[in-house]
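Exercise 7b. Backbone tokens:
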């Protein structure tokens, strides 16, 4: 009886921890799925400015992310090593998110460009401040590997829920609060009021869920670290851990493929479909697929290796994207597209979980090759590669909108070139990026199940 009560208490605690991922992904989903639409359609910012801003922000992230990882790893607070940073990062990120999607000072011209540039970079910094300690906190709960996997799976499930809320809820909210109509179809479209309300909802949600998460859990197994931030160490790790570089490349390509769908979706349903509200139903299929995708690895691992499971995940995503293209071009069915998107998201969700596991293997591989562990630097690369993937998506998106003469005020009345460009970015490029990722992974990633077991045995022998 006591043991059963203990298990239930542990589950409640881990669900409480997982709720923090909902808040983080409310902000994350708002930024990555709708910021481009806000900047081009509402603020009318130049595509050339945005093409310059995103790479500059990523250069800074390359410095800030591993530096923040080291600072968090050396944290010494009464609340624990991670929880204070989660609160600080979440509260500041919520404020920046609300300011980013609201031109409350009525700025224009150079002042507006400077304001957006500052908020854009600061959003990335505050997101890192919350995201790194949140995901790094899992080992502090328990030393049991199986229990850690359960905790990570729960958190990943809540993470998908957070993004699902944004992607499904945004089109619904648009229909309720938008005061602007498509000049051709008369349907409600995303306007300044829509983004204002949506960003405030996400900001409040981020604060509430992060506070709930931090107040629910306790850090039991604290691992002290005296690791100091060093650019030299970052370069050493990057230079000598060849599998980290391979991982960064194939993960960036596949993540960019996923971001193309989420980032271009608002444009596609607004311009090509002519009814932005239909995006909510489409994204619902994707959210269901994300949940189902969590079962792929446990099922597949009973029959095959992690390597083949990951390849299967990518192939499933590619098959889903091909189905989306066929549904859009042959059957002209948004429901058919949604069903195929569900299939693609099953593969994508499984892909993301596998990448987390690969990153842990890469830490061991780095220690095996270099003689020291670089956990904070290596795990900070996860957030950095996601931002790099978003940058690749953004460069493609802004370039496509620019050359096709897209006009945010025309919506479905945009020229045919804009319709074609948006369709290609939504339906063709994701499968190409996923296919390239599969090729790189298959050809260059060498950490097979057998190799990781060999490395684990060597490290264990060295420590003993």
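Sequence design result:
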């Amino acid at each position: 009886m006591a043991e059963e009560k203990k298990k239930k208490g542990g589950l409640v605690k881990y669900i409480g921890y997982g709720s923090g991922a909902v808040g983080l992904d409310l902000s994350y989903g708002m930024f990555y799925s709708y910021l481009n639409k806000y900047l081009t359609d509402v603020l009318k910012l130049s595509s050339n400015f945005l093409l310059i801003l995103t790479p500059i922000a990523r250069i800074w992230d390359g410095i800030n992310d591993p530096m923040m990882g080291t600072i968090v790893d050396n944290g010494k607070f009464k609340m624990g090593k991670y929880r204070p940073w989660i609160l600080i990062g979440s509260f500041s990120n919520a404020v920046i998110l609300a300011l980013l999607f609201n031109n409350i000072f009525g700025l224009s011209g150079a002042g507006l460009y400077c304001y957006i540039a500052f908020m854009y970079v600061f959003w990335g910094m505050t997101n890192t401040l919350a995201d790194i300690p949140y995901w790094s906190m899992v080992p502090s709960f328990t030393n049991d590997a199986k229990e850690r996997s359960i905790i990570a799976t729960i958190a990943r499930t809540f993470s998908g829920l957070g993004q699902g809320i944004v992607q499904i809820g945004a089109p619904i909210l648009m229909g309720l609060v938008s005061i602007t109509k498509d000049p051709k179809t008369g349907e409600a479209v995303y306007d300044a009021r829509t983004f204002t309300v949506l960003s405030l909802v996400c900001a409040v949600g981020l604060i509430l869920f992060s506070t709930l998460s931090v107040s629910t859990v306790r850090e039991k197994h604290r691992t002290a670290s005296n690791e100091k931030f060093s650019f030299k160490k970052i370069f050493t790790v990057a230079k000598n851990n060849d599998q980290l570089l391979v991982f960064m490349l194939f993960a960036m390509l596949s993540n960019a493929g996923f971001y193309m769908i989420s980032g271009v979706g608002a444009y596609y349903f607004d311009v090509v479909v002519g009814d932005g509200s239909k995006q909510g139903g489409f994204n619902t299929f994707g959210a269901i697929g994300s949940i189902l995708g969590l079962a792929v690895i446990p099922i597949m691992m009973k029959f095959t290796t992690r390597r083949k499971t990951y390849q299967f995940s990518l192939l499933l995503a590619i098959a889903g994207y091909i189905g989306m293209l066929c549904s859009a071009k042959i059957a002209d069915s948004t429901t058919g597209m949604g069903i195929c998107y569900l299939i693609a998201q099953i593969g994508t969700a499984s892909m993301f979980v596998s990448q987390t596991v690969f990153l842990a293997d890469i830490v061991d591989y780095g220690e095996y090759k270099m003689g020291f562990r670089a956990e904070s630097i290596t795990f900070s690369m996860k957030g950095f590669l996601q931002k790099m993937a978003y940058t690749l998506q953004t460069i493609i998106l802004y370039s496509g909108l620019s050359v096709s003469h897209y006009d945010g005020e025309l919506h479905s009345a945009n020229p045919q070139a804009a319709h074609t460009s948006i369709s290609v970015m939504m339906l063709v490029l994701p499968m190409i990026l996923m296919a390239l990722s599969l090729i790189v992974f298959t050809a260059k990633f060498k950490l097979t199940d057998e190799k990781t077991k060999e490395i684990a045995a060597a490290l264990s022998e060295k420590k003993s």
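Instructor comment: The chain has a mean pLDDT of 86. The two ends are 39 Å apart (CA to CA).
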